[in-house]
Write a structure and sequence with these properties.
This protein is mainly alpha-helical. Helices cover about 70% and strands about 0% of the residues.
């Protein structure tokens, strides 16, 4: 983060992007490699979100957890914006920031937290298994990207593999939480797409920072009301989970994620998330004591092949 990065300057922050393509013109250079690394770091941070949320729910109600995490993340982001004296974004960016706020800051955390009250983390991973393909579809509609046929085949195959694995892990049964999960999928894909578009004209950390600050008039009173109605039990797990989803998932992870999307394009960055459900399952074993089936290594290999194909495909 640098003080000279202006939220209002209409300049690219990573690499030059071909108009309407959603991808950089120097896609094979060092900037593209750095963008891939940043997007991968974002995926790693996101993979801890569901286990951390499960920990947080041990001591907080769902509404309290979501509202407090958003307020804490906004305080961090707002402090950075204030310390670096970043000017307010231009009016032309506020609509896009509102989409990011509604989808990524509020919608996805709330819907997935509500789902995790009755769903396992393995079942919830269905959402992130579908998210890369859904984000690529939103990108094609909103930004006008034109990925190749190979890209779409590999992306669809990867999504199918992840869905089959996660459904098998949850016993193949659908639950009432599925409505929350699929709703979260749609709003998050919209937020990712709009955030990736904005990250090409302003620093990625400012995109999520301003979106978080934009939500404060809603999240502060909701947090106060929720905390007064929902019981709170502070434990090592609940506090750690809250702090991670606030600082790691809600701010730092999204900062590097949006920077990565700006560098390598929305479709390619989104496909890196095919690895997220598998990473989440690993964390679930280590942190929550869940058990994996022998199908996990085979699924991991298949997903990695799909990721390699999408990263090499033109798009």
């Amino acid at each position: 983060m640098r003080a000279q990065d202006s939220a209002t300057a209409q300049t690219a922050i990573a690499v030059p992007v071909a108009p309407g393509s959603g991808r950089p013109t120097t896609g094979r250079g060092s900037a593209a490699r750095a963008g891939t690394l940043q997007a991968a770091l974002g995926v790693t941070a996101f993979s801890l979100t569901f286990p951390a949320t499960a920990w947080g729910l041990e001591g907080f109600g769902p509404w309290s957890l979501v509202a407090v995490r958003t307020v804490l993340a906004a305080v961090i982001a707002g402090g950075c914006l204030l310390a670096l004296r970043i000017p307010f974004p231009g009016r032309g960016h506020w609509a896009g920031l509102a989409v990011v706020a509604a989808g990524v800051v509020l919608g996805f955390p709330l819907l997935t937290t509500l789902a995790l009250q009755t769903s396992t983390t393995a079942h919830a991973a269905v959402v992130v298994g579908l998210l890369p393909l859904t984000t690529a579809l939103f990108s094609a509609l909103r930004v006008g990207t034109r990925p190749s046929r190979t890209f779409w085949i590999a992306a669809s195959a990867g999504a199918a593999v992840v869905i089959a694995f996660t459904v098998q892990q949850s016993g193949g049964a659908l639950s009432g939480a599925d409505a929350y999960l699929f709703g979260a999928l749609l709003v998050c894909a919209a937020g990712y797409t709009e955030g990736g578009r904005l990250a090409r004209v302003m620093p990625g950390w400012q995109v999520i920072g301003w979106a978080l600050v934009l939500c404060l008039p809603v999240t502060v009173p909701v947090a106060a009301i929720a905390l007064s109605y929902e019981p709170v039990r502070l434990t090592a797990h609940s506090v750690t989970g809250l702090l991670w989803v606030a600082a790691g998932s809600q701010f730092v992870g999204l900062v590097v994620w949006y920077r990565g999307m700006a560098a390598i394009g929305i479709p390619k960055a989104s496909q890196l998330q095919l690895a997220q459900p598998l990473l989440t399952l690993v964390w679930s074993v280590l942190l929550l004591g869940e058990h994996l089936t022998p199908a996990a290594p085979l699924t991991a290999a298949a997903v990695l092949v799909c990721i390699a194909v999408t990263q090499r495909a033109r798009g």
